[in-house]
Amino acid sequence: MGFEAYLNKRIMIADDLPNMREDLIKILKGFGFTSINSMPDGKKAWDELCSEAQNGKPYDIIFSDINMPYMDGLELLKALRFLDSYKKVPIFMVSTENEKEVIVKAILEGATDYIIKPFTADVVKAKLLARLK
Question: Taking 60 as the threshold, does the pLDDT of residue 39 lie above it?
Answer without folding.
Answer: yes
